[in-house]
Amino acid sequence: xxxxxxxxxxxxxxxxRAYLQKLESIDKGDVALYLFPPFTALDNYDTxxxxxxxxxxxxxxxxxxxxxxGLEQLEEFGIKTLILGHSERRHLFGESQELIxxxxxxxxxxxxxxxxxxxxTQEVRESGSTELIYSYIEQQLEGIDVAYEKLIVAYEPxxxxxxxxxxxxxxxxxxxxxxxxxxxxxxxxxxxxxxQNIAQILQVPxxxxxxxxxxxxxxxxxxxxxxxxxxx
Length: 232
Ligand SMILES: O=C(CO)COP(=O)(O)O
Fold this sequence. Notes:
The active site is at residues 86, 156. Pathway: Carbohydrate biosynthesis; gluconeogenesis; Carbohydrate degradation; glycolysis; D-glyceraldehyde 3-phosphate from glycerone phosphate: step 1/1. The chain has a single domain, classed as Aldolase class I (TIM Barrel, Alpha-Beta Barrel), CATH 3.20.20.70. The chain has nine helices and eight strands. It has helices at 13-23, 71-76, 87-92, 97-109, 122-126, 130-140, 169-180, 198-202, 219-230; strands at 2-6, 32-36, 51-52, 81-84, 113-118, 151-155, 187-189, 209-212. The strands form two sheets. It has a four-stranded parallel β-sheet. A four-stranded parallel β-sheet has the order 4-5-6-7, with helices on one face. Strand 1 (2-6), helix 1 and strand 2 form a beta-alpha-beta unit. The protein is globular, with a radius of gyration of 17 Å. It starts with a strand and ends with a helix. The mean pLDDT is 96.
């Protein structure tokens, strides 16, 4: 079971350190924990409780890429885990599949664990056509080595992210079954996961964990979810 906390543009270095200190006290059982702080909160945290990853990075060692960080900056903190293809990168910041593919190839070559996100928009979901939803997701897998041994795929429907709306367990099951036909790698769900729904979601067949935004930002809430997950 995997639980990953995507801090998005929340927390500072000081608050991430305090978060980790509190998290250290948990007995996480068999749950593997990942934390994705914002760039400026990356550091050499002396922690064994969670693996620290970056929310994004550019596909170069270093260079003239204003506003980006690359391999050199990640290596300073021993970071070998990355989210790629998050819907906020795709839709708010215009990352194309072509760019995401380039990033994937670069960081795969570097042996990174990659949390790769896919998910349909509200418009596609409301079309009511399963075929359209599947082909939309297929496009987001284009150019991605779905057999990569350090790949983790997160299904995050855009309409369920940060909205409080969660996909039904039936919808999640259908989409994860579809993704299972594409890859043998672990499949996660993300989108308004919280203490009230995490048990149901984690019991969906093929669901091996959750990528959590809002409900992970408070360490007590994240710990509540870890305690629920480890009992399943
Ligand atoms: O985008 C997400 C995780 O990457 C999900 O965010 P929320 O949990 O806030 O819906």
